[in-house]
Amino acid sequence: AVAMVSFQSKWRYLFMFLGIQLVVMALLSREGYQKRVTYFIRIFRKPDASVFSGRNHSAAGLSGGDVYANLSRLSKNHIHADEMPYCPKTSPLIGGPIHVSFPSGLTLAQVQRKNPLVVRGGRYRPPDCEARHRTAIIIPHRHREHHLKFLLYYLHPFLQRQQLSYGIYIIHQAGNYTFNRAKLMNVGFREAMREEDWDCLFFHDVDLIPEDDRNTYVCDANPKHAAIAMDKFGYKLPYKMYFGGVSALTPLHYLKMNGFPNNYWGWGGEDDDIGVRVSLAGMYISRPSLKVGRYKMIKHKLDKGNDVNPKRFNMLAKTRQTWKLDGMNTAEYEIISRQYLPLYTNITVFIGTEAGLHAIPPPPKAAVKAEAKPAAEAPANVQEKGIFRVVETPGLLKTELTALHVGSLMFFHRSHSKERL
Ligand code: UDH
Ligand code: NGS
């Protein structure tokens, strides 16, 4: 009988052991559980030490890899141009999820040291192969040096992992007048294209850090909205037509839609206007998958000098009438300085005010009409120093989009950000 009891209890222990194993396996396979585990691991880890340690965290898996992992293997000596093969279609340096955190004390000198292959003006090309893509990153900026430092820390290695030939442009708005994000993008487009024959332009907020290097910074056949899954929106698109944060257009896309609007002063609406322009110019919005188009936003409040624009809804309702009259073909500005810094090209620009570049009193109405007419007829044929020549006229409009769009935006506002209305 004693032998029987001990045999039964052995089986009981074996079943209990197997049962526990099953429960653990079931729990581990659930994403929610993984997040909780990550959360606890983070509590016990020394905060942000990883960012500077240079260790590869992809082995740790759960919180993403070190964006600098493997890059030190890149040769510092460029292969002779004639012998250079094209880079592979998919870069072998791509590693998927990236660990993103914002340690205090990071300096631009540290970022520079970590990116020895980046040259004057924030330019880079792969040392061992001929890049298949040339991408310019355009970042509208004022008083966000703290964010810029983090963006540069992550963006440089991120782009190097993708084996791109790239340049980073900071378009800095001079003076204290109300901020104008979209107009700065127009400046960035023209000034970057003046320098090099970029085949893709990424319009990039300074506070958004990409969290997965499979989100490749190359252009699609249609304008691409890259920041599809931001942490602040629960890694989902906030509304269907959202086009904010990070977007990518070829020069041809850009000119087809007459660039971006110049008249949105202050916060809000300009990104929606750009999204509507895409459609009005007969194109679609392309997007990466939710899994890959992930971004972490550096938390901040609304800036001084960028108050919510109360006119934005009225302006948006008129995009259909205004997009050909206001955009790349009417962007007036004065470049104050162009500095080729070690990690980026800094373009400081005066973009004037709502009253015009030098606040000249508006011309009589008749003159405005006479000027506006030809632009309305042939807006897409913008020509600039011979490089930009768009001969195609925008195709037929696909949807009666604007009214619907403005309606859904107002709904989004009411439910998400009451304080702004
Ligand atoms: N930007 C500047 N300086 C400014 C304003 C804007 O550099 O003073 C640039 C910067 O690249 C920024 C982008 O413009 O990422 C977009 O501006 P934003 O970050 O203010 O806009 P976003 O919609 O954030 O990303 C608004 C935060 C408002 C918080 C409201 C809380 N409910
Ligand atoms: C919309 C704004 C967009 C803005 C988006 C996200 O409502 O400009 O919210 O804002 N459109 C209008 O105001 C018309 S956010 O939550 O990032 O502050 O990008």
Describe the structure.
By secondary structure, this protein is α/β, with parallel strands linked by helices. The protein has a domain of 232 residues: Alpha-Beta Complex (Spore Coat Polysaccharide Biosynthesis Protein SpsA, Chain A). The protein is built from 12 helices and 13 strands. The strands form 3 sheets. Strands 1, 2, 3, 4, 6, 8, 10 and 11 form an 8-stranded mixed β-sheet that branches. Strands 5-9-7 form a 3-stranded mixed β-sheet. A two-stranded antiparallel ribbon has the order 12-13. A hairpin with a 4-residue loop joins strand 10 and strand 11. About 13% of the residues have low confidence. The chain binds 6-aminohexyl-uridine-C1,5'-diphosphate and 2-acetamido-2-deoxy-6-O-sulfo-beta-D-glucopyranose (NGS). 2-acetamido-2-deoxy-6-O-sulfo-beta-D-glucopyranose binds next to helix 8, helix 9 and helix 12. It is a single-pass type II membrane protein. It comes from Acanthochromis polyacanthus (spiny chromis). Pathway: Protein modification; protein glycosylation. Belongs to the glycosyltransferase 7 family. Its EC number is 2.4.1.-.
